[in-house]
Each structure stands twice: as C-alpha cells, then as structure tokens.
Amino acid sequence: MEFLRLVSINVGKPHDLRLGSRDFRTGIDKRPSADSVLIGHAGLDGDAILDTEHHGGPDQAVYVYGAEDYRWWSQELGQDLRPGTFGDNLTVAGFPDDLNAGDRLLIGDVILEATAPRIPCSTLAAQMQDSNFGLRFRRAERPGVYFRVLNEGAVATGEPVTFIENPEPSVSMREMFRLWFEVQPSPDVIARILDAPVAERVRERFRQKLADTAASP
C-alpha cells in the first residue's frame, strides 16, 4: 500500500479546437477546480465528455495522470504544462509509472479501479496543436490511466491518495498500451487481457484482434 497526493482536480467545459482543416468540439482542455468535486459512477460532476464513442462511460469514468509525467513533458516540450492539459480529471503526485488492471486508488470515500491506458487520438493532437503528437505520446509510453468508480464521493485538492495493488494475476497498462498498436498479438497474451478487469472498449479491441488472428492463414 502506498500513499500519494491529489494535486489537482480538473473539469472540462465544451470548447472548439482547430488543427489544419479539421474542427473539434471537445471537453479535453480541463481546468483545475478550487472546489471539492463529486465523483460519481459516470465521472466528475460538471465535466464535459463529448466524444462518447471513445471516452467516458462506466469503465473509463475518470482519467488520472501523474504530476511527475507532466514535469517530464514540460521538459520534453520546453513549455510548462498545467494539470488537465491532456484531459486528465485527476492529477496525482507519486502516481506509479505503471499499474495493473484492477489496481485501486482510494481518495476519501472514493474507490477507483484501473481499467485501461489512454490511447492518443486526433483530439489530443489538436489540443497540443501538433499533428505528430499522437506518435510522440505513443513513443513516450506515459499514457495515464482510466478508472471505473467503485464507490462515489467528493474529493478535494491536497487529499492523500492510497494505492492498493490488485492481488490477482493481471496485465499492466503499459503492456496493453503497447499491444493496442500490434497487428497480431499472441492469442495467449490476448486471453490474459480478456481475463483481467479491463474496460469494455479494451475488451472489444482485443476480441477483434483475436478474431483477426484466427482468420489469418
């Protein structure tokens, strides 16, 4: 069991972005809240999630990013990045550099369970105003983690965060992140992912990879 700290709670409002010829209506640019925020099974109270095909839902209700990863990116990009820049709802100091599916965070009454890594998308590239940022994000292997909410409650900046490791065999976020981009992962590896408490979008992705592998000559 490890104790971490919640350094920022970030909530997004609908806004417009443009990159090249593409326009985006999104809630990715989340801003730190000075007030306590209620976290429910659908996510943070008042937070905008517009691309519901790829984000949000009960298995990916809360996105967490590490304060140390933001410091790394600030040095890498040569500019200060505030919490919420990548669309994270919670920014946590001391956040582990990798988690397993089923690992949990406790913040007051709130219990979160890790389900999936964040996969870079065109909206993130638009947020960073860099069409190549998705590839850069992928190579950095600092994806942050989506969580489902097992117990609801209000959280406040500065609260301690307790990390509890999943005692059952599982699969790590970094491994899933790498395998997401592989064309034909090993069926044994896919089976291990499907046995873990991963998000439904992850499950669908790897079921399809398994079907594609079985159909290959």
Describe the structure.
The protein is of the alpha+beta class and 217 residues long. The chain has a single domain, classed as M1 Pyruvate Kinase, Domain 3 (Beta Barrel), CATH 2.40.33.20. 27% of the residues lie in helices and 29% in strands. It contains six helices and 13 strands. It has helices at 67-77, 122-128, 133-140, 173-180, 187-195, 200-215; strands spanning 2-11, 15-19, 22-26, 31-32, 37-40, 43-44, 62-66, 90-93, 104-107, 110-117, 145-151, 153-155, 160-164. Strands 1-8-7-11-10-9-13 form a seven-stranded mixed barrel. It has a three-stranded antiparallel sheet with strand order 6-5-12, with no helix packed on it. Strand 9 and strand 10 (110-117) form a beta hairpin. The relative contact order is 0.20.
Summarize the structure.
By secondary structure, this protein is α+β, with helices and mostly antiparallel strands. The chain contains six helices and 13 strands.
Let me know the average pLDDT.
Answer: 95
Strand content: 25-35%
Stretches where pLDDT falls below 50 for ≥5 residues? none
Structural class: alpha+beta
Largest sheet: 7 strands, mixed, barrel
CATH class: Mainly Beta
Cα distance, first to last residue?
Answer: 47 Å
CATH superfamily: PK beta-barrel domain-like
Helical content stands at 25-40%
Total count of helical runs of at least 4 residues: 6
Q: What is CATH's topology name? A: M1 Pyruvate Kinase, Domain 3
Number of domains: 1
Silhouette: globular
What's the CATH architecture? Answer: Beta Barrel
Q: Would you report the number of β strands?
A: 13
The radius of gyration over CA amounts to 17 Å
Strand order of the largest sheet: 1-8-7-11-10-9-13
SSE order:
EEEEEEEHEEEHHEEEHHH
